[in-house]
Amino acid sequence: MSRLTVNNQPVQYRLDPETPLLWALRDASNLTGTKYGCGTGHCGACTVDVDGRAVRSCQTTIGALEGSFVTTIEGLSRDRSHPLQLALLTDNVVQCGFCIPGIVMAASVLLKKDADPSEATIRAAIDNLCRCGIYPRLVESIQRAARNARGEEVVAAAPRPGTDPADAARTVPALVAPSAKLSDR
After folding, report:
1. What phi and psi values does residue 48 have, to the nearest 5 degrees?
2. Contact 110, 126 (CB under 8 A)
3. pTM (2 decimals)?
4. Domains along the sequence of the chain with CATH
């Protein structure tokens, strides 16, 4: 039996210790935000945060993670309020969305370690594959998230799931300078 803390909840997996973390998360914990991509650790769709490290969950067994703290995309923010999620949505980075959970998790680990990453640092840390080709917008969006986390830029929350598009269009503009008031725009 492997004991982990997943999204701040203690979990005991009654699975073979050689079971990849990806399948324990998806099949036993029903945390399907972590995606199966290549199965070889190359694409990064399965990336999760394990003890502050970006880990490819398809290549890591639950037995090797005994006592570890695991955060998945579901544990990062259920309401999309994490600075990375807000920035990616604001900048329209997400296209098909399949790779996004792994990218968000890799970027969240990066921002925990470096509050003001350079373009080169981001490109080195985020080696996830995206077939839609979001890379040009991704770097700026991660930098926007870092500015938001540092309090230098405010990124408003995205509309809640299920919001009528007509209602979403009437919301406050997504980017607001910290000192600006609505009446100043």
Report:
1. -135, 165
2. yes
3. 0.84
4. 2-76 (3.10.20.30), 83-184 (1.10.150.120)
Q: Find all residues with CB under 8 Å of 19, minimum gap 6, and list them.
A: 13, 61, 62, 63
Task: Name which of 89, 90, 121, 91 is nearest 106 in CA terms.
Answer: 121
Is residue 110 within 8 A of residue 120, CB to CB? The reply is no
Find the length of the chain: 185
174: exposed, middle or buried (Cβ count in 10 Å: 0-12, 13-18, 19+): middle
pLDDT tens track of the chain, all 185 residues? 899 999 999 999 999 999 999 999 999 999 999 999 999 999 999 999 999 999 999 999 999 999 999 999 999 987 878 999 999 988 999 989 899 999 999 999 999 999 999 999 999 999 999 999 898 899 999 999 999 999 998 877 666 666 676 665 544 444 444 444 434 43
Give every CB contact of residue 149 below 8 A, 6+ residues apart in sequence.
83, 111, 115
Q: Which residue has the tokens 């991660």?
A: 142
**Spatial contact of 11 and 29, defined as CB atoms under 8 Å apart:** yes
Which tokens go with 53? 């490290």
